[in-house]
Design brief:
CATH superfamily: Spore Coat Polysaccharide Biosynthesis Protein SpsA, Chain A
Oligomer: single chain
Number of domains: 1
Number of strands: 8
Strand order of the largest sheet: 3-2-1-4-7-6-8-5
Length: 302
């Protein structure tokens, strides 16, 4: 029997895009419980969107502003579904994305999560990265190469505590926790979600403090970093990446430059096109537009 699915949407003043996100769930080929977590919205148009959705039978949970990670966990605890997918209120699910990911988890009981490729739309458009094939304990210790918009086994999320790290990189922290706990993750090459790129989107404050946040990850996951050499031997990553990331790690560069260089090498190693690499760089430039303090929930994790 196929597992049941819930989609959790944290929302803070995203009323203009929220209903499109909900529609993309309703148009999936599998039934899904929809839970919108109001993360302390202050925008009247967002509150009006909540009223329309509640009138249509969508469950809305209201809470004080805490950021996306606690909002996601509010939704996880509010459902009994077997699988949970977090979807940002300005993103969309791709056609049949849920069905494809559910099939992966149904067929792999030792997998904590399944994900696909993610395309972008809005101010920058490209077709999407090739889905990374697995949760690699070695590679995840260098950079977060997996999308937060994945389908997670709810029991696995609760077992490891879900998204816990405060202040950013909470999704990277979760992937590290899964890897340390021995859970698998499986990627598929099909596009399963669409990421919106627009000026003024949530500034990734954590990426501006990469050195600090990465140091905290190392402190939280000492075993994962201590086992790098052993995990290197069993890593399925391309040889170019296995040789490059350790070399980049010891270069006399700033943590931010190492991160950017490692990301570029990753795209080359996985044979993504140069056009995609340029588009991702342009997309990152677009979303780095600052907003007034407090105007949005804290940013995505990584």
């Amino acid at each position: 029997m196929a597992g049941s699915v819930a989609v959790v949407i944290p929302c803070f003043n995203d009323g203009s895009t929220l209903e499109a996100a909900v529609t993309s769930i309703e148009e999936q080929g599998v039934p899904a419980e929809i839970i919108v977590v109001d993360d302390g919205a202050t925008d009247p148009s967002t509150e009006t969107a909540y009223e329309r959705l509640e009138g249509a039978g969508v469950r809305i949970i209201h809470q004080a502003n805490q950021g996306p990670a606690p909002a996601r966990m509010t939704g996880v605890r509010a459902t009994d579904a077997d699988y949970v997918l977090p979807l940002d209120a300005d993103d969309l699910l791709a056609t049949d994305g849920l069905a494809r990911l559910r099939d992966v988890l149904d067929g792999n009981p030792d997998a904590a999560a399944a994900w696909g490729s993610v395309s972008t739309f809005g101010e920058i458009e490209y077709s999407g990265d090739l889905g990374r094939p697995c949760l690699d304990p070695w590679q995840i210790s260098y950079h977060n190469h997996l999308p937060v918009c994945s389908l997670y086994r709810r029991s696995a999320l609760l077992e490891v505590g879900g998204w816990r790290l405060a202040g950013g990189y909470e999704d990277w922290d979760l992937w590290m926790t899964f890897a340390e706990s021995g859970w698998k993750g499986i990627g598929i090459p099909e596009i399963t979600a669409h990421y919106r790129v627009q000026s003024g989107r949530r500034l990734s404050r954590s990426s501006q403090r990469h050195a600090e946040r990465y140091a905290k990850l190392r402190a939280r996951h000492p075993g994962l970093f201590a086992q790098r050499r052993r995990n290197w031997r069993s890593s399925p990553a391309p040889l170019l990446l296995k040789l490059s990331l350790p070399a980049i790690d010891v270069l006399p560069l700033s943590p931010r430059r190492k991160r950017l260089l490692g990301g570029a090498i990753t795209h080359i190693a996985y044979r993504n096109s140069w056009q995609m690499l340029v588009s991702r760089y342009r997309a990152n430039r677009v979303v780095q537009v600052r907003e007034p303090a407090g105007s949005r929930s804290p940013a995505r994790g990584s």
